[in-house]
Design goal:
The protein is an all-alpha fold and 89 residues long. 62% of the residues lie in helices and 0% in strands. It has 5 helices and no strands. Helix 1 (9-18) packs parallel to helix 3. This is FAD assembly factor SdhE.
Length: 89
């Protein structure tokens, strides 16, 4: 990543806790994602993840499994980049 790194470990920890979902499949994807990328997340990445986590479990699952693509406000470069990272773990 070429963007500045997120320097607030408390904010990352809160985001990781918020990523705990009702669907096991989502939990597994996010656990692998955080294991791989947590310390490399930029402020923009944290913002994009926060926006994704505002979705319902089923809508989020559709995006994670590429059944759907982001639309509207979610179709910005930061969200798309983070979603691609999530899809590769």
């Amino acid at each position: 990543m070429d963007t500045p790194h997120q320097s607030d470990p408390l904010r990352r920890a809160r985001l990781r806790w918020r990523a705990r979902r009702g669907l096991l499949e989502n939990d597994l994807i996010f656990e692998r994602f955080f294991s791989r990328y947590e310390h490399d997340l930029s402020d923009a990445d944290v913002g994009a993840l926060t926006r994704l986590l505002e979705l319902s479990d089923n809508d989020l699952m559709d995006l994670l499994l590429a059944r759907k693509e982001p639309e509207g406000d979610l179709a910005d470069a930061d969200v798309v980049r983070v979603l691609e990272m999530l899809r590769t773990v």
